[in-house]
Amino acid sequence: MDKFEILSQLEEHGFKAYIVGGYVRDYLLGIESCDVDITTSATPVEVCEALKISSKENLGCITLKIDGTHIDITTFRKEKNYKDRHPEVTFIDDLEEDLRRRDFTINAICMDKSKRIIDPLNGRDALERRCIETIGNTETKLREDPLRMLRAIRLAAIYGFTLDETILEFIKTNRSLIKSLSYERKKTELDKILCRKEAIEGLNLLKRLRLLETLEIDVPDDFVRTEDVLGCWAELRFADRYPFTKKERAKIEAIRKIVSGQKIDKITLFEHDLEDVLCAGEIMGYSREKIVGMVEAMPIHSPDDLALSNRELVEMLENDIPKMKSVKNDLINRILSGNLLNSVEHIKIYIIENWK
Ligand code: ATP
Ligand code: MG
Is residue 82's pLDDT more than 90? Predict the structure, then answer.
């Protein structure tokens, strides 16, 4: 079942259904988009019945994953009384009213099952003018959900579009409203900027509009965009309250540590995860080939690769456990730097001559 079959099935059951948002916007710009948003007059229960699926509903939205494509099916709605994007939602039957509650005209263009474009709010016109304009009054729209300021900036940066004058004016005088948003929402939007190849344009626009301070992030002048978004975060300084998992924080710290060491050598590779080194390498200007070449040339990759076993080492050092740690570090450094061969014989001679 693909996106167009979903539209057909919903229609066969008497409902209206269209693709809307990013997919249509990108389609008209000739860009391939993997995520699809569908808007329909069917309620979540009716969507499940019509598509013969059982799926959990989340805030009136059914989410499907079909062949790697993420599809959100949302019921036509009216929203009011925003409070950090938890508005009161009323399901409705009118497409145009559903489109009016959205943010920008370029995000309110619809496509039906035969790829026909339905565009009552003239989003296509704004798309052709490469301009981001709110639907209806800018002040009301951006005040209702200040995250829309960040969404506008993201769209402007990734497509190279201009922001309508009223949006720019609003941001200049109301940037502090962004502080009222949850760190989770702010992070999601920042992630969407950082993961694009236009990340630098996005950060520059945030800087130009003096939003970096409001967002409590600091971007270094020599910022480099990395494939892994955590590499980008590692370069930024940001408020503690941005939500990351423990594992993500550990990765950010590891990347920062490697970068602060200023060089990548065999010791760095020995001590860190290859993925972390590769990411730090992007920031430091090391090519992937160079790093992979270094890994291949390493005589040992972990302490377990030492030719002399722990048992043999303990015996040689007569059970002096604290000394063992220093000896092991010394052996690893010498072997990695090519000053000692990783063979039982050479290691034993070295220990006798230097540590006895
Ligand atoms: P992309 O998926 O490429 O990030 P998108 O425009 O599809 O871009 P989504 O977050 O998937 O963004 O949202 C789908 C649609 O829902 C948007 O195009 C827009 O019409 C509407 N929308 C999303 N977030 C908001 C918001 N905060 N305020 C108003 N409308 C929104
Ligand atoms: Mg989308």
Answer: no
Quote the tokens at residue 173: 């005088």
Long-range pairs for 208-212 at CB < 8 Å and ≥24 separation? Answer: 209/153, 209/168, 209/171, 209/172, 209/175, 210/175, 211/149, 211/150, 211/153, 211/171, 211/175, 211/178
- Distance of CA 103 from the midpoint of ligand 1 (Å): 8
Distance 36 CA to ligand 2 centre (A): 6
Asked whether 135 and 120 are in contact (CB, 8 A), the reply is no
Probe residue for ligand 1, chosen from 70, 107, 134 as the CB with the greatest number of ligand atoms within 8 Å: 107
Instruction: Outline where 179-273 has alpha helix (H).
Output: 183-194, 199-208, 229-235, 246-260, 266-271
On average, the pLDDT of the chain sits at 95
CA of 86 to the centre of ligand 2 (A): 18
Judge contact between 252 and 244, C-beta under 8 A.
Answer: yes
CB 75 within 8 A of CB 41: yes
Q: Is the CB of 35 under 6 A from ligand 1?
A: yes
* Alpha helical stretches, state H, 109-146: 123-128, 138-144
With a 6 A CB cut-off, is 147 part of the ligand 1 pocket? yes
Chain centroid offset of residue 330 CA:
40
CA distance 185 to 258: 29
Taking the centre of ligand 2 as the mean of its atom positions, its distance from the CA of residue 14, in whole angstroms, is 25
Digit-coded pLDDT (tens) for 287-316? 999 999 999 999 999 999 999 999 999 999
**Cβ of 107 below 6 Å from ligand 1:** yes
Compute, in angstroms, the gap from residue 244 CA to the centroid of ligand 2. Answer: 23
Q: Please tell me the pTM assigned to this model.
A: 0.91
Q: Which ligand is nearest to the CA of 33?
A: 1
Q: Which of 154, 121, 149, 119 is nearest to 135 (CA)?
A: 121
Minimum-distance ligand to the CA of 103? 1
Model confidence pLDDT, tens digit, residues 124-175: 999 999 999 999 999 999 999 999 999 999 999 999 999 999 999 999 999 9
